[in-house]
């Protein structure tokens, strides 16, 4: 694993640690980076799904309204 030094705003790191329930700065930063990567993969997957014919129906308001019945 590479060692990287970065100047970060202490208040932002502290807030992220609190929000993530992280005990260390490293844990908070790793968790935040994992979240960014996970969200990116989710956006890519949703983009791929939206290109599929069956998924287009899911975006159609009429189809969605009928599905709720």
Description:
The protein has helices at 10-20, 25-50, 53-59, 61-67. The protein has 69 residues and is mostly helical. The chain has a domain at 37-69. It is elongated and about 50 Å long.
What percentage of amino acids are in beta strands? under 5%
Q: First CA to last CA: what distance?
A: 53 Å
Class from secondary-structure proportions: mainly alpha
> DSSP helix count?
4
What's the main sheet like? none
Tally of DSSP β-strands: 0
Helix content: over 70%
- Can you tell me the overall shape? elongated
Low-confidence stretches: none
Query: How big is the Rg?
Result: 20 Å
Mean pLDDT: 88
Order of helices and strands: HHHH
Summarize the structure.
The protein has 69 residues and is mainly alpha-helical. The protein contains four helices and no strands.
Please supply descriptive tags for the structure shown above.
single chain, mainly alpha, about 70 residues, about 0% strand, 4 helices
Topology:
Layout: H1 10-20, H2 25-50, H3 53-59, H4 61-67
């Amino acid at each position: 694993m590479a060692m990287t030094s970065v100047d970060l705003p202490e208040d932002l790191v502290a807030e992220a640690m609190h929000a993530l329930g992280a005990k260390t700065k490293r844990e908070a930063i790793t968790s935040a980076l994992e979240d960014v990567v996970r969200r990116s993969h989710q956006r890519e997957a949703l983009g791929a799904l939206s290109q599929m014919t069956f998924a287009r129906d899911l975006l159609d308001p009429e189809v969605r309204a009928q599905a709720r019945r």
